[in-house]
Write a structure and sequence with these properties.
The chain is mainly β. 13% of the residues lie in helices and 35% in strands. It has 10 helices and 57 strands. Strand 54 and strand 55 form a beta hairpin. Helix 7 runs antiparallel to helix 9 and helix 7 packs across helix 10. The termini are far apart. 31% of the residues are buried.
Length: 775
């Protein structure tokens, strides 16, 4: 087809609405059309589509999104300088193929002459003239282009002092005396609007950062000012903080916090040692962040404290902030409590060092203290109002040396993965006198409390859950490892309490407590000491005395004891209590003591007698949980003191008939369960069936239940009791010697489940006397 004379370039201005723009020149392929918005090339079939390809009159460009207002939309044809058609000798020569190939040559020539590249983009001379090349680069350096008498280009050295020389000097980047060094500026002068001087002066003002743009990398980032970015965080140094440990920076901290509250920003503490000898109050939602607990240090003076203070725990609560990356220290003479929270909620204290000072919590909710190192102080919490409590305190992943935790009147305390070491190390959590009817839940898990002078863990008036925790302490003041006083509905699971100055576990005035799979050994007095408690379940524990591989242990005297002899309903199953120097198990009261054949040493008593605390008040076994065989050096002794009986009457004729009838019913039998276990090896017994005895009495019009020789007992359903023993990893000493062997996790059934049922029985000693009297 013929190629008409065309100008293959065009432009338009966007208005933010129009999406379709025409072009009026021939384009043979869509890829040959270049489309730009403000000089930025766009992508075909992504940013736009093209119609009218192959049309001499042109076509249309359709954008997916309308170009913005006042944007420059440019398009031009850019035919690639290549040929893909390969003509073969004696091959076919089709007109349209040849025509297309030749047309591309003319299109490329049009573009060079009048398109968006080539001659239109270069300096040109009139037709008929020719221009020699420019001088080489070394000859052109620091010179301007001029022309000689023939109009040919030459490199000319500028004349000193003229505008050309100044322009070259201003463009220089090789000398501090040129370029930017030649621009003068005086802050005291009043520069006109739109001048460089005015812009530089505005830039130096307080709002100067609002003139500088900022955009982050990545898709979706938007343009902001540097001022917006910087005001997201307020530095205490913006308000004059020095950070040299000498100047009092309390006022600077307070000013920074007060301003931060107005813009919703956090307060940043750069590296330094900041003396705080005054009260600094953090407003609601204003966080305080340091650069690291070892580099950003707050040194509190005698009058110093960091406070978060509200008016109540409702709408008036203050907090909703975090304190992190700081050292909080008392270098001597400072406050007892450097961090004080009152009517505070949702506060996170993270990655801080608390040194030689304490944290005071008074009326609070949802406080989280994590990843902190604490030395020589306490975390103290309570609620000052009668019949009101604080709630939701979480302490996790903290390390304390000579540091304690003392919490009152707080529900939902959760302490985990925390290690306290040293004389003052203790976890003390108590209900408080003003809430005597409420038992707040407390959970302690995966903690270590070691070498304290008092009880390692002391819980008073709470519903405790203590698990997988190691305790050792109280050696100086003869205190126990774990002590529970007036606690209800709780449990200890996987707790180890050893080398303590009194008892491993001291349980007093408590009820409905389960002690499962714990280890109490080498304590000075007892493994487990009970007193004034009821409904206590003790399953699968060890309360033993054994030499320690590293020494320093006490010879434990008792295993499991009810020392005041007043506990009731004690379930004691599958506990190992060997090696104690005096008593293994001592539970003398009217307790429900269940023995399990689990292979442990429970019930091996090293005392003169095993007796109930009250005469004639407790049974040995039950109808649903019987002893299999009783081995004794002599028989039982039954009370037969006539002073304790009514007058002894002779047998009636009805009695004689029954006795003689039963004599004839005595026969030989074997028990079915014995046959199931032993087969033909099951042994034979002599006796009579209890149902036959009952029928004989009924036939004479007598109630068999009125006679002690006849027994009928029922029992409720017995639940299965299981102890889950966690895996114990192997531990080696510094020489590689195995000191604790690996033990896999295992599940131990210490009491088989049994459905409810009943059973008939006979007291054969009385039956024998009955029949003997009738013969």
């Amino acid at each position: 087809m013929p190629v008409t004379e065309q100008t293959p370039i065009g432009s338009a201005v966007g208005n933010g609405v129009a999406t379709v723009f025409p072009f009026d020149y021939y384009v043979s392929q869509a890829a040959d059309l270049v489309v730009q918005i403000d000089g930025v090339p766009k992508v075909l079939n992504v940013d736009y589509t093209v119609s009218g390809i192959g049309n001499q009159q042109g076509g249309q460009i359709a954008f997916a999104v309308a170009p913005g207002v006042a944007t420059s939309v440019t398009h031009f044809r850019d035919t690639s300088l290549d040929r893909s058609i390969d003509y073969q000798t004696t091959g076919d020569l089709f007109a349209n193929t040849l025509d297309f190939d030749v047309d591309r040559l003319w299109l490329a020539l049009q573009e060079i002459y009048s398109g968006g590249k080539g001659a239109p983009t270069a300096i040109r001379v009139p037709p008929g003239e020719t221009v020699p090349p420019l001088p080489k680069a070394t000859d052109r350096a620091n010179r301007v282009i001029g022309f000689d008498s023939n109009g040919n280009p030459i490199a000319v050295l500028p004349t000193g002092g003229d505008a050309t020389s100044l322009a070259i000097d201003l463009a220089s980047s090789n000398s501090a005396a040129k370029g930017a060094g030649q621009i003068g500026f005086a802050y005291a002068l009043a520069y006109g609007a739109g001048t460089l001087g005015r812009w530089l002066k505005d830039l130096a003002q307080s709002a100067g950062s609002s003139f500088i743009g900022f955009i982050r990398g990545g898709v979706g980032a938007v343009l902001r000012t540097v001022q917006d970015v910087l005001r997201e965080r307020v530095s205490v140094k913006d308000y004059g903080a020095v950070g040299n440990g000498v100047a009092n920076d309390a006022a600077a901290f307070q000013a920074a916090a007060t301003y931060a509250a107005t813009v919703g920003a956090a307060v940043f503490v750069p590296d330094g040692k900041y003396l705080i000898n005054g009260i600094v109050t953090l407003p609601d939602k204003v966080s305080l962040w340091g650069n690291g607990k070892s580099t950003s240090e707050l040194q509190f003076g005698p009058s110093g404290a960091l406070r978060i203070t509200g008016t109540n725990l409702g709408a008036g609560a203050s907090g909703h902030l975090s304190i992190r990356g700081l050292g909080i220290t008392n270098q001597g003479g400072g406050p007892t409590y450097a961090l004080q929270l009152s009517y505070a909620t949702r506060v996170l204290v993270s990655d801080c060092v608390i040194y030689n000072t304490s944290i005071q919590l008074s009326a609070f909710s949802y406080i989280n203290i994590e990843n902190c190192d604490m030395f020589g102080g306490k975390i103290v919490g309570d609620h000052p109002t009668v019949n009101e409590i604080s709630e939701a305190l979480k302490i996790s992943r903290c390390n304390g040396s000579n540091f304690g935790i003392d919490i009152k009147d707080t529900a939902d305390v959760h302490i985990s993965l925390t290690h306290l070491l040293g004389p003052a190390s203790q976890i003390l959590i108590q209900r408080g006198e003003q809430n005597s009817s409420f038992y707040p839940p407390v959970q302690i898990a995966n903690c270590i409390v070691d070498s304290g002078d008092d009880e390692g863990i002391y819980l008073i008036g709470v519903a405790p859950r203590v698990s997988d925790t190691f305790v050792s302490g109280g050696r100086t003041n003869l205190k126990s490892g774990v002590r529970l006083n007036d606690c209800v509905e709780g449990s200890l699971k996987g707790v180890t309490s050893r080398f303590c100055g009194n008892h491993g576990l001291h349980l007093g005035f408590s009820k409905q407590i389960k002690v499962l799979g714990c280890h109490f050994d080498d304590n000075k007095v007892s493994g487990i000491r009970l007193g004034d408690s009821s409904n206590i379940t003790i399953i699968g524990n060890t309360a033993i005395n054994q030499p320690s591989w590293f020494g320093g242990n006490y010879p434990q005297v008792n295993g499991i004891v009810d020392e005041p002899s007043n506990c009731t309903n004690i379930t004691c199953v599958g506990n190992q209590v060997s090696g104690n120097t005096s008593t293994q198990i001592y539970l003398p009261a009217a307790s429900n003591i269940i023995h399990s054949n689990s292979g442990y040493n429970e019930g091996r008593l090293t005392c003169d007698s095993w007796r109930p605390n009250t005469d004639n008040s407790a049974s040995l076994g039950t109808s649903g949980a019987r002893w299999s065989v009783v081995y004794a050096a002599s028989g039982t002794i039954n009370t037969s003191d006539e002073r304790e009986k009514t007058s002894i009457e002779p047998l009636t004729e009805a009695h004689r008939r029954i006795a003689l009838f039963l004599k004839g019913k005595i026969g030989v039998f074997r028990f079915k369960d014995a046959i199931e276990q032993k087969g033909e090896g099951a042994r034979y017994h002599f006796g009579v069936g209890a149902q036959t005895v009952a029928a004989a009495f009924a036939a004479e019009g007598l109630d068999p239940h009125a006679y002690a020789l006849f027994c009928f007992d029922e029992w409720p359903e017995l639940p299965e009791m299981v102890v889950e023993h966690p895996e114990v990893p192997e531990v080696r000493d510094d020489d590689g010697k195995v000191v604790i062997e690996h033990q896999p996790a295992r599940r131990e059934v210490v009491q088989e489940g049994k459905p409810a049922g009943n059973r008939y029985g006979i007291r054969y000693d009385e039956l024998a006397m009955f029949i003997l009297a009738a013969i």
